[in-house]
Amino acid sequence: MTCTSSGTIVSGGRDGAINLWDVTGDTRLGSIPFAHIGSVHDIAASADGTMLASCGEDGYVRVWSMGHTTTARTAVSAPSRHPIAERRGDDVRVGAGRAFCVAWCESVAALAIGFESGDVAFLDADRNIDSGWECLRTRGVVHAHGDAVRGLAFHDGKKSLASCGDDGVTAVHVGELPVTTKATLHKGEYARCVRWGEDGTLYSGGWDGRVMAVKL
Fold this sequence. Notes:
Elements: E1 2-3, E2 9-12, E3 18-21, E4 28-32, E5 40-45, E6 51-56, E7 60-70, E8 75-79, E9 85-88, H1 89-92, E10 99-105, E11 110-115, E12 119-124, H2 132-135, E13 138-143, E14 149-155, E15 160-165, E16 169-174, E17 179-184, E18 191-196, E19 202-206, E20 211-214
């Protein structure tokens, strides 16, 4: 689930649909049925709210444009029913499997995708590159984890991508050819989510129920 710049909420579920809600969560404003075959695992909105990225059980990452639709109360952004770009895991690296998490890397014009294989793929997301949206070209792939990647977070100022996975590792990747720093937290149990704080502190949440501040 994510919140767009217009203040609306976007969610994805086991039915493969992406739904747009008002801030109360009571009114559905729009829907993309069968956005993915199987569950939608993660959704991320671009900083300006014009694009939505999703990934799912089918191994696909898809980018959707956020057009405008008018309700009785207000004009809001709503996702189109047809993706403007997509890539499947096997096209990024054979055997990547399901796609579990997605993050916009705005300052480096890329999308980061975390896969079941433990790979993190960086796909071109520069809207000014000819045919860039048609193919989401692979910029690079990092074998970041020994098991499925479960969370991603990009810090634009630091140009650093944080990731975590089922191997119990929380990691930070920096640079075009990423230098990776890793830490095993949460008593070695699954690391489930990562977020950057406003002050640049990295927070990691795990299967053990703890949220930890990390310096990597």
